[in-house]
Each structure stands twice: as C-alpha cells, then as structure tokens.
Sequence to fold (212 residues):
Amino acid sequence: MSSEMVNGFKLLPGFLDRKAASDLVRGVAEIVASAPLVTPHMPRTGKPFSVRMTNAGSHGWFSDKAAGYRYQSCHPQTGRPWPQIPRDILAIWRALHPGAPPPQCCLINYYEDPKARMSLHVDADEEDFSVPILSLSLGDTALFRIGGTARKDPTRSVRLASGDVVSLAQDARRAFHGIDRIYPGTSTLLAENGFPGGGRLNITLRRVTAGG
Ligand code: MD6
Ligand code: FE
Fold:
C-alpha cells in the first residue's frame, strides 16, 4: 500500500445495503434466466476466462478466440438481444453520475469457482473514455488491484466487499486493474438470492459509443 492511488479512483464502501444488494442479485438472476452465463475465451490463444459473463443493455461485451474482444447487440448463444438494464441499476448510475449519458452496457461477471480471478487489464473497447465506469460488488469479498495507465506502474490492492461501489474516472478510467482472488464463504448474499453456488457477482456499467 505504498503507492499513491491513481487519480479518479473512488471507492464507496457499503454504498448498497443488504436489501438493495438482495434486490440487485435477484434482478441479475432474472437476466441470467433469459441470457445465460457464458465463458469468454482469450483472443488468439483461446484460453478460457475463469469467470462467466452475461450482459444487459444495448451493447454486450464478449470475447472468443475467433473474433476477440468486442461489443455485440445479441447473446452469443441464444442470438437474442440482451435484456434491458434493470431500473434499480440505472437509478444507481444516475445518482452517482448525474448529467452523464445513460449506460449502454451492464456487464455481469460471475465468480463462482473459488479460484476465479481476472488478470490485470484496461477496459479499452469503448469509444468514450470521458464517462466513468461504475462497478458494483455483490457477494463474496474480492481482492481488487489497481495500478496506473502503464502496466509497469506500481499497484495498490483493496478489498471489495458486498455492497461496495467503485467508480473509475479520469486517469483511473485508463488504469490497469484486476481481481487477484476472491474470499470464498465471506457472504451469503448470492446463495440466498438465486445463485445456489454462492460466490461473487460484479456488475460494471459503461458508456460504449461516443456522443450522447
Ligand atoms: C471485478 N472489475 O470487480 C472486475 N472494470 O470483478 C473490473 O474489471 C472493473 O471494477 C472497470 C471498472 C471497474 C471495475
Ligand atoms: Fe475492468
């Protein structure tokens, strides 16, 4: 914890109370019922991600070996448009990003495997970097690491607990970040709200296209 936190990183611990978090998880369970979780794969190598994903909104993020990282309007397996972003999620966006255009992507990452993680990355598939990304953590606590805009920059680690909200704006919007590990069994939220396997959900809200 020696380095300065990159500018534009904001952590709101416990922003969501248990009731709000439970409602969100049940909303995600509804999304998953119509847009099933899928395992993305790395471009070129085809290595599978350890998290499964789905989306809501007009733009869904996905990756596979053949076509790599991209946004697409339909679910890769069902071919149906992604479900709409739930109203309670849109309300959180409006409360924290007043004046920003509405999110076009609600990416849902599910860490069910206790060994699931997400390697250091920059979210760079969007056209518009002026709008912050908002991240909601639900369920088991995770160890989040964030550095600077260069991969070699020093990093700092913070634990993200259920109900914590993170906003990445300014330099942090282009900063490397990832999830080193989750702490299994630290929350009952998911198991009690439609995810019998427990684990952790992360919801990120993004503006994808420029203008708006
Ligand atoms: C996660 N989060 O919390 C992974 N990306 O599971 C992210 O990759 C992330 O927390 C952009 C903005 C905020 C984030
Ligand atoms: Fe990210």
Summary: Residues 9-206 form a domain with the Jelly Rolls fold (CATH 2.60.120.590). The first strand starts at residue 9 and ends at 12. Residues 121, 123, 177 surround fe (iii) ion (ligand 2) (CB under 6 Å).
